[in-house]
Amino acid sequence: MNNTYENIKKILDELNKKMDKSVEAFKKELNTIRSNRANPAMLEGILVEYYGTELPINQIATISVPEPRTLLIQPFDKNALSSIEKAIQKSDLNLNPQNDGSVIRLILPEITKERREELVKLVRQKLEEAKVAIRNIRRDANDELKKITNISKDDQKHYQEEIQKATDRHIKILEEISQKKEESIMQI
């Protein structure tokens, strides 16, 4: 009997770990969506050709935010400047890097109202995808719980309620993160 409850505890622990990872992945994904403030995470998906290898920008340069709408990229090796500049120009960020020979400045232009609305739609789409991922984790946990045969129906119902509470809690967190991102996008 003790082994049964260890299995249930394992299912619940695994459920929470997976849901926490989904929330973290959602946060990371939202960081790549541009708002009015400069954020080094905007550059995360960009790979730079560096001595025959493609590397993320943050592995060959430090990225700082000296002003709210400016990113400053300082490569560890000055020879990487032109490669970083080319990678940014090829990206879908629509930014024009300013290379002064030692650093690259990225000045973020104001976002138009239409573009803000598109970005908010994108955030909502990402939110829906994250909610679906959370619900899939819930479904898998419920399926695992149903495989355990030597517990009472009342206990099974209790643990299904625990799984639902974890699901609701994580979805609420996702919605709060999404709301903050939407507010930062719509902020002028």
Please tell me about this protein's structure.
By secondary structure, this protein is of the alpha+beta class. It has two domains: 2-32 and 112-186, Topoisomerase I, Chain A, domain 4, CATH 1.10.132.20; 40-107, Gyrase A, domain 2, CATH 3.30.1360. Helices cover 58% and strands 14% of the residues. It has helices at residues 2-31, 81-90, 113-147, 153-186, and strands spanning 47-50, 53-56, 61-67, 70-75, 98-99, 104-107. The longest helix is centred in the C-terminal third of the chain and has 35 residues, at 113-147. The chain is elongated.
Provide a short characterization of the protein structure.
The chain contains four helices and six strands, in the order αββββαββαα.
Keywords:
single chain; 188 residues; alpha+beta; Gyrase A, domain 2; two-stranded antiparallel sheet; 4 helices; 6 strands; 58% helix; 14% strand; elongated
